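Q: Please design a sequence for this.
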């Protein structure tokens, strides 16, 4: 199941399985490929979306803001090691995120079909799907960071993992079971080494 857009966005910086870090958005092609896998975002940006350097750059900007704010959310626990050394200061991150959200002024609307419950939608006067997409991403980040899920955000500190994730149960420490296994193996190795060191 796809996660909410802001989590998918943060996850475009990920470990490559070999100790390095991959960026899914490092080229226009990569950004195109990633966006094709985001049905929620594409629905918010109807029309002929052209993913060019401008759109890529704007999406990467929102990601920089989001990852800096995620680091603040998980603090005092350490942030994801992928970009811990180059996080934006708070005011810059907020400025970037809010400017991206402000690119598309929207008005909430109520819809009530003959069958079923009422739903809400957003009315927009913006025509450019690229602008709408970036603004939708930024809005999701604003909702997430000001909402109840924020408190369950964690950075996974299994060896080599750089992911942020939303904790789904009380004592969850790792983003997925394979990270838990790697972390246990690493701890066991550490303990054996320490024990050997004492001899
Ligand atoms: Zn992990």
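A: Design:
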């Amino acid at each position: 199941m796809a996660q909410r857009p802001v989590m998918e966005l943060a996850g475009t910086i990920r470990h490559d399985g070999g100790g390095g870090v991959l960026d899914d958005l490092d080229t226009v092609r990569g950004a195109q490929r990633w966006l094709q896998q985001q049905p929620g975002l594409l629905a918010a940006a109807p029309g002929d979306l052209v993913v060019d350097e401008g759109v890529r750059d704007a999406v990467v900007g929102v990601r920089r803001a989001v990852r800096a704010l995620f680091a603040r959310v998980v603090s005092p626990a350490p942030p994801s090691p992928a970009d811990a050394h180059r996080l934006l200061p708070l005011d810059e991150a907020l400025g970037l995120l809010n400017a991206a959200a402000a690119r598309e002024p929207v008005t909430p609307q109520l819809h009530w079909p003959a069958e079923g419950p009422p739903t809400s939608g957003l009315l927009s006067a913006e025509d450019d799907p690229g602008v709408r997409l970036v603004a939708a991403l930024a809005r999701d980040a604003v909702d997430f960071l000001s909402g109840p899920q924020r408190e369950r955000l964690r950075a996974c500190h299994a060896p080599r993992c750089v992911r942020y994730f939303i904790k789904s149960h009380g004592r969850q420490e790792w983003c997925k079971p394979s990270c838990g296994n790697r972390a246990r193996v690493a701890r066991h190795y550490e303990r054996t080494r320490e024990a050997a060191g004492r001899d």
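Q: Thanks. Anything notable?
A: The mean pLDDT is 93. Strands lie at 13-15, 21-23, 106-111, 119-124, 153-155, 164-166.
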